[in-house]
């Protein structure tokens, strides 16, 4: 059996704009600086890690980081909830993989509320045997913890799993887990940032069960 682990942001949902707007909202409320380059550079990591990196000079206490994290994610869900821009081809790929007997999982740095919002919008929650969110990990990407937990939940060996990611830290995490890394070029990302991926695509419609199986066995890109 093969497994496919989906990142959420930029893979199942085009969340770039909602995330950037919510980060800017929190930054402006606190009088902090946040450039779009800062946002792009940290995309794919947990919010608590991003806050510590971007605004660590403000000597934030752990409780303050947690509160900023909560406010940012609440703002994100309020923005995204108005319209969930699902990635083109996501539903079709999930259906084809599930129909072909692949074990599917989600491995996301986001909180469970964010992941649930997207899974509900997809209407394919039952297709996923395992879901791992940022709440369950102690080390964010590029550490492989999130993907190793996902593989464990679906009971598929790491070398039989492919990860679909849109961020360089996610590709690094997949490869650190010794999984096949598929890079999806999404909004706001330079295709060159995914150069380390085992295969790079511009749309989920370029993938199907046969293609992914070949990638896992190392026979084709």
Description:
The protein is an alpha/beta fold. Helix 6 links the parallel strand 2 (103-107) and strand 3. It has helices at residues 16-30, 36-42, 47-55, 62-80, 90-99, 112-122, 145-154, 168-176, 209-216, and strands spanning 3-6, 103-107, 128-132, 161-165, 180-184, 199-201. A six-stranded parallel beta sheet has the order 3-2-1-4-5-6, sandwiched between helices. The longest helix has 19 residues, at 62-80. The two termini are 20 Å apart. The protein is globular. The chain is 44% helix and 12% strand. It is built from nine helices and six strands; from the N terminus they run E-H-H-H-H-H-E-H-E-H-E-H-E-E-H. Helix 3 (47-55) packs across helix 4.
What's this entry about, in short?
The protein is α/β, with parallel strands linked by helices and 221 residues long. It is 44% helix and 12% strand.
Whole-angstrom Rg: 17 Å
Task: Estimate percent helicity.
Answer: 40-55%
Counted beta strands: 6
- Give the percentage of residues in beta strands: 5-15%
Shape: globular
What profile does the largest beta sheet have? 6 strands, parallel
Average of the residue pLDDT scores: 93
H-E string: EHHHHHEHEHEHEEH
Stretches where pLDDT is under 50 for at least 5 consecutive residues are: none
Put simply, the count of helices is 9
Distance from first to last alpha carbon: 20 Å
Spatial sequence of strands, sheet with the most strands:
3-2-1-4-5-6
Estimated structural class: alpha/beta
